[in-house]
Amino acid sequence: MQEQPKNFGFGEDETMLRDSARKFFSDHCSADKIHRQVASNPNIHRNIECLWDKGLWQQITDLGWTAACVPESAGGIGMPLVAAVALAEEAGRAAFPSPLIATFNTTFVLRECASATADSLLADIATGTPMTLAITNKAGSWEPEDTDVSVTAGKLNGSAWFVQDAGKAEGLLVSARAAAGIGLYYVNSNAAGVTIKADGIIDLTRDQAHINLSHVDAIEVAAPGTGAAAIRHALPAIQAIVAADMVGAGEWLLQTTVEYAKVRVQFDRPLGFFQAVKHPLVNVMIEIDKAKSLAYNAACAIDSDPQRLDFANTEKLAHMAKACASEMAVFSSSRAVQFHGGIGFTWECYVHLFFKRQMHNQALYGDARYHRTKLADLLIGKAA
Hints:
By secondary structure, the chain is of the alpha+beta class. It folds into 3 domains: 6-130, Butyryl-Coa Dehydrogenase, subunit A, domain 1; 132-226, Butyryl-CoA Dehydrogenase, subunit A, domain 2 (Beta Barrel); 228-380, Up-down Bundle (Butyryl-CoA Dehydrogenase, subunit A, domain 3), CATH 1.20.140. The protein is 50% helix and 15% strand. It has 11 helices and 10 strands. It has helices spanning 12-28, 31-38, 54-62, 81-94, 100-111, 116-126, 227-263, 275-303, 311-339, 351-363, 368-380; strands at 131-134, 149-152, 155-164, 171-178, 181-188, 194-199, 208-217, 219-222, 265-266, 269-270. The chain has a 4-stranded mixed beta sheet, covered by helices on one side. Strands 2-3-7-6 form a 4-stranded antiparallel beta sheet, with no helix packed on it. The chain has a two-stranded antiparallel ribbon with strand order 9-10. Strand 2 and strand 3 (155-164) form a beta hairpin. Helix 4 runs antiparallel to helix 8 (275-303). It is globular and about 75 Å long.
């Protein structure tokens, strides 16, 4: 087992990046602004829309966020994973509508491909090209062998499902089955034969789609037989990033609910005076701290093992982080709605934005039960 550095390897550069992100979101992404942007229409029969600010995306690209975890050899900054975790946490705290998380996740898979094409795509990400993963099948499995896409003579056919921020991404990294095994292929979102069908999801800060591919010309990124390993090695980083997003959203829900409990008076007392309110809020704080520690711990373990020599350990830590964060997401959301009283259930209350983001995240790449099962398999072996 690799020895990890103190403070999860979170140094001065990472601190500066996190602080600058926090200020950026404070200046540009207040809850009321995000609500006006993505929740202006409460009609349940409204058209599915992809609502985001491309100008803000350009600004965060200029700040170097998309380049943060791109290796220097590919034109990036080459920061550790804990830097991306910090950015994901701040993005979750702001419920930031953008392809940032999807692009980070694509970055992690590309880093594992070790090919000239992957390096070229990483360079594009560093300069702000949003990309997303198209690796999940109709049943919701992202296990590489379960892909619904096949490749023959460089042409992709089939469907990818539950593709995150597909409406924002300019490129798709697709897993496909060939005779020699699973490979990874890059496809432009506007390529001939690509049909993107938007899904209706509860998370207003994101979009999701299933994508049909019909005789689509593709660029090979990882050769057949090597793509499955690239996805598997990237999954712990992906799980840590999604966990961090939930941590950030949980922090917003907690802080907002605490502030409300200070000013809302009932029975001549602020709500926060009553133990039935303050004690559950303390429990929310504890769950957030647990999830945050586990997310950074998983990221640090990955950073400390660049050759994946102790991959089983990083898998375990990532499963722990995602399981804990998923349960915290549900708990923090339910307490926030309940303690806001009647207004907590209304469209006008900003809590619903974060509630819905949490519900989407907790199922994304596996809920708590799924990750506890995976963890048990690793620790005690699969049941006969």
